[in-house]
Structure prediction request, 300 residues.
Amino acid sequence: MRHRQSIGDRFFHVLNHSFFILFTLVCIFPFYYLFINTISSNDLVRKGLVNFWPIGLHLDNYIKLTGVGDLTNAFLVSLSRTALGTILTVAASGFIGYIMTKRELWRRKVWYRFMVVTMYFNAGIIPWFTNMQMLGLTNNYLAYILPGIVNVFNIIMVKTYIESIPKELEESAEIDGASVLLIFRRIIWPLSKPILATIAVWSAVLNWNSFVDSLVLMSAKPQLYTLQHRLWIYLNTTNNLQALMSTNTTTVSAAILEGALNAKVVKYTIAMVTAIPILIVYPFMQRYFEQGIMLGAVKG
Prediction:
């Protein structure tokens, strides 16, 4: 039988749905604003006349984006580090998390507590830079990959999740003579897809949006700049040109005005391009993401 809702219940549902619809619109609008500014007339964008709907539709900004500076190379750097970094991080987190559940591991509690301690202490950016320099990872592509492979928080999440899997599955495989690697590959890995997918989303977003390591470590190799770093450079270019225009508009040449226009449009277009991959990937991973978060948080 259907439950008859009272007037108070109906009012609550209307208020609840209205709030979340408004909240969703507020979250979506920044992406929508960027998008309509990238497909509208560049002159109207410079004047700030494009706010709620596109005017003068065109796709020239996306077509011409590949010819602006080193954006194509920066895009490939970000894409490659995201793909490689995510794969290695998921693999390392899955295997180390599984190993940490094995009671026969020598000094298991000691190793586990040692890893957890590293989550609470951070030496700061200067010692981090010095350490990376001593390891030869400055101006080196491997600086994007190696430091992020082992993430303690991810390992804890995987360990907690694997401990919720019935031990009888492993015991039966051990009786049949399966090795640790075989058990991990054939049993643990397939059953851990929700938490591993969650870690994949975290790692992909972190690698794709990474900026500080490119800014600090790749100063001598512009060809290794990430897309976010390039966006920051164009953002600074736009701010400098706007400051020049506001202080002395009478002596600003047409070339500078065109540069300001291009920089602003390029900034919007790059920002949209950097957001598109995550917006595309996340809906496909959302089901695993929610399931992994819930199951990975059952035990402490």
Confidence is low (pLDDT under 50) at residues 296-300. DSSP finds 13 helices and no strands in the chain. The two ends are 40 Å apart (CA to CA).
